[in-house]
Amino acid sequence: MGAWGENSFENDEALDWLCVHIEESSDAVKLIRETLEAATKAEYLDQTDCEDAIAAAELIACGRGARPKNVEVPKEVDDWLQRNAYAPDDLMTHLAIAAMNRALDEDIDRSELAHPDKWAGEDVQEKWFAAVRDLRDRLKSTI
User: Fold this and answer.
1) Model confidence over 2-21: pLDDT tens digits?
2) Domain count of the chain?
């Protein structure tokens, strides 16, 4: 059983996206953009693509100085941002906001994470939605 929590990097998929895919990519900025675009264009957003998009959006938020309050961000985020001197622009930030809007879609025909049976309880689902709304709001605050 893998790790999972409501915050951006509290699940194995997001950590793999950050620590494996981004770290090993020859063009990580392109991968970030493609990850967010995939989420915005998906007819049906599955859990994996959603978790990857949230990780990408959090990387952008942290790159713009909009860090989460009371939630520790993995050291790898800051290391990658510093090592690559990554400063996300407004276009990438708008794309991240659009991806988070899509992640928050509560239509069970459009989002795997909208299904109540994906969650251990309604309170867990609501905490996740609140964390994603917070991420979206932090991104918006940087525009």
Assistant:
1) 556 788 988 889 999 999 99
2) 1
